[in-house]
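Recap from last week: sequence in, structure out.
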Amino acid sequence: MSDVTRRDFVKSSAAISAGAAVGICALKNSTAAWAGANDKLRVAVLGIRGRGGSHINGFQHQDNVEIVTLCDIDENLFEKRLKEDFDDRNIKRPKVETDLRNVMDDKDIDIVSIATPNHWHSLAAIWACQAGKDVYVEKPISHNVFEGRRLVEIARENDRIVQHGTQIRSSEGIREAIQKLNEGVIGDVYMARGLCYRWRPTIGHTPVSEVPAGVHYDTWLGPAPESPFSENRFHYNWHYMWDYGNGDIGNQGVHQMDVARWGLGVTLPKKVLSGSGMFIYDDDKEVPNVISTTFEFPDDGPRGKMLVFDTRPYYTNDEKGAKVGVLFYGSEGYMVIDSYNHYQTYLGKDEEMGPGRDEG
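Predicted structure tokens:
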């Protein structure tokens, strides 16, 4: 699967999956595809380690949803997940798969929830759309711009619902904060700072080794370049390898970048300046662990807007209580968003506390 380029793999996906899409009833257009066993939507979760556990827990709290399939390339994960998340909760066990293509071919599945490594996000979502299934896909939605654009095209062509995992947009507190910005609580907003200061210790060095028993490594690589197995390129640490991840910008920072752009009301920048490097550690990480990027945006008025995004991995100061969050600066004050549901404003040169929202 890994002997072709990512671009060729995605381009050819339409032809590969065309047969799977034939005759499958679209969930949006007809209840016939899912009406039946208690009229529940049938979900498959792709990737059951890490974020996949959150997907399982979230769907289990929906009355009209049944998880019917778990799919992962690591067979060693199944028994623990099945026992803890199904047996111990008195929930019927789903079937298990190691090849996501079997999930796409299953006409009894209505929704595919994707929690794979980043390099699989777009292609898995594309295949699901072509197979007539609606999609929830983790952030980042794509590994590059081309894949993201192709997914949007395929979703529209197949009239599919695709939801991207920037779930902070569903937070009542953050929605309220953005509304306050739009109402002018801090005046004219001209700048945002996104912060992603996360404790990320060294991953050290691991040698090339044999693929562990029960791991379908070729399927895991999928559209990524062929590479020998190493522990540091596999579970979780793939985040720090360019072939599969993009460090904390794509892992945590995507949420703060999303909120920063949302609050500024901007689309594409006109200028970008970025500096980065690997500091402190000598390990296998490829993605820089310290990044500072400035985006300049055009504006309808006489002046534009600016976004500064900083990523740091080690001991560092906070910014008005925020280490993972967003700060907005306006002509009459500033706002600090330091969590997924809390914000506080500070007004005037004396920084008097203005409107805000506590956790909850």
